[in-house]
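Aim 2 progress update. The chain analyzed this quarter is reproduced below.
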Amino acid sequence: MTIRLRVRELREARGWSQAELATSADVRQATISKIETGGISAIHLDTLDRIARALGVDAAVLIEHTRDYRTGG
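Predicted structure tokens:
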């Protein structure tokens, strides 16, 4: 699962809009939107950490890659 999908999944699990996450993480709503739509090629570590803390998870949860060996993905 990609960062964009993890962020969206965790945000939606909390019932938050992008604007609510942005406020909680102290980042722009446009940044959240770009992350979730894949419209951003690189995320500053500080931004990633702010989003993770707002979502109540460690930043590693957002970036760790879990390979599914059954499908090769």
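The radius of gyration is 12 Å. The chain has one domain: 3-63. These observations will guide the mutagenesis experiments scheduled for the next reporting period.
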